[in-house]
Write a structure and sequence with these properties.
protease, ClpP/crotonase-like_dom_sf, alpha+beta, Peptidase S41, 7-stranded antiparallel sheet, 2-enoyl-CoA Hydratase, Chain A, domain 1, Pdz3 Domain, 427 residues, serine protease, signal, 9 helices, 6-stranded antiparallel sheet
């Protein structure tokens, strides 16, 4: 079977990535057993005729000449963008940028965004240690202009945040609680994301931060946990796992991270309409913390793959979740390359936690609530055209929780015995 080169994402509610060569596989082939499943059995000829009529009307009568190639590409973009906020038609450079982001290497300002219906960009999370983070960009900010140009009508707003290392870019943002927009000038640089960091908080108690899920995150989690165990001289009393403002990333990386803290059992299940969209991922023996209790810190910027990890640890009774309601992105995107170098990013499945709960438009509700600051639009269910959740939470939107006070609260909970240990594992 021809390899689809399909990258499955617990993806960032939005994508801002970089550039590196992508090997383009053969064109989509109707003889491919996987692709054959997606071919329509009943071609809607009447609708196709209507499309051709509209196409010809635009081609013949629009006030300015329209290039055939561009007109067709616009139609394809519309076909996908109307499905849900995460399906999209990607030009070759956008597809290359997507691949680069999974590697954690690109040139830009270091921010995960969600494109809104008016073409403005909602900031899901600035990535730790990047120019956007250092400049003070925050989850919930909305980018309304780049270099003085409003984003309305901009077909590639994410692309304009990219450029050459050392080049400045000025973004105009609006922020909750501020009446006037503000400008930020940020210098682009080569972004090399270190997705996992750790330290000992005090003897026996450790802190592990996962800022995003990329190709090297799983091995990094294992490496950091082993290092922490050595520093604690083999006696680990508890772990604070910080997933705040983690926008997600590769599903496989989240599965690897969960596997490092579980001995067995289901981690996550995906379910779609086609057989290749249905999969179950299970943990292998070997809990690197040997059952030491875990507190998972989350907030409204915790999304997708990060929600998968938090949900798996909680459902297995392996951890308690502290913070605020999470974003609620529980859908799988599959990227399929096309024969011209472009790709389509299509929502193909939903995520389900081990207990069978869909994350979509629901999120993870914390066991221990912390208060933070309101963040505009930081819920999947607030996105226009979002995939309906099976049980959309009626709870109010989550909050953005920043700073070290949440880490101190989590440490106190570990020492007080509030965290869940492996003995209470349910699956």
């Amino acid at each position: 079977m021809r390899q689809l080169l399909a990258f499955v994402f617990a993806l960032l509610p939005a994508l801002t990535l970089a550039q590196a060569p992508v090997s383009v596989p053969a064109p989509v082939d109707a003889t491919d057993p996987v692709m054959a499943e997606t071919l329509p059995t009943d071609v809607p000829l009447a609708e196709i005729r209507r499309y051709v009529s509209v196409y010809n009307a635009v081609k013949d009568a629009y006030v300015e000449p329209v290039d055939d190639k561009q007109l067709m590409k616009s139609a394809l973009r519309g076909l996908l963008s109307d499905l849900d906020p995460h399906s999209a038609y990607l030009d070759k450079d956008e597809a290359e940028a997507l691949l680069d982001d999974t590697r954690g290497e690109y040139v830009g300002i270091g921010v995960e965004t969600e494109r809104r219906p008016d073409d403005t960009l909602l900031v899901v999370a600035p990535i730790d240690g990047t120019p956007a983070h250092r400049a003070g960009l925050r989850a919930g900010d909305v980018i309304v202009a780049i270099d003085g140009e409003p984003l309305s009508g901009n077909a590639k707003p994410h692309h304009d945040l990219r450029g050459e290392a050392g080049e400045p870019v000025t973004i105009t943002i609006t922020r909750v609680g501020e009446i006037e927009p503000r400008d930020m000038t940020i210098v682009r640089e080569a972004i090399r994301v270190t997705s996992v960091t750790s330290r000992l908080l005090e003897p026996g108690y450790a802190y592990l931060r996962i800022s995003t899920f990329q190709t090297d995150t799983g091995p990094q989690v294992r490496r950091q946990l082993r290092k922490l165990a050595e520093e604690a001289e083999g006696s680990m009393s508890g772990l604070v796992l910080d997933l705040r403002s983690n926008p997600g990333g590769l599903l496989s990386a989240a599965v690897e991270a969960a596997d490092a803290l579980l001995d067995d059992g289901l981690i996550v299940r995906t379910q779609g309409r086609l057989p290749y969209s249905n999969a179950s991922f299970h943990a292998k023996p070997g809990d690197l913390l040997e059952g030491a209790p875990v507190i998972v810190l989350v907030d409204t910027g915790t999304a997708s793959a990060a929600e998968v990890l938090a949900g798996a640890l909680r459902d297995h009774g392996r951890a308690s979740v502290m913070g605020s309601r999470t974003y609620g992105k529980g859908s799988v995107q599959t990227v399929v390359p096309l024969d011209n170098g472009d790709s389509i990013k299509l929502t193909t499945a939903r995520y389900y936690t081990p207990s069978g709960i869909s994350i979509q438009a629901r999120g993870i509700l914390p066991d221990i609530v912390l208060r933070g600051e309101a963040a505009r639009g930081m819920r999947e269910q607030d996105l226009a055209g979002h995939l309906a959740g099976e049980a959309e939470a009626k709870a109010k939107a989550g909050e953005l929780i920043e700073g070290d006070s949440a880490i101190s609260r989590a440490l106190d909970a570990l020492k007080a015995g509030t965290a869940t240990a492996r003995a209470r594992r349910r699956f």
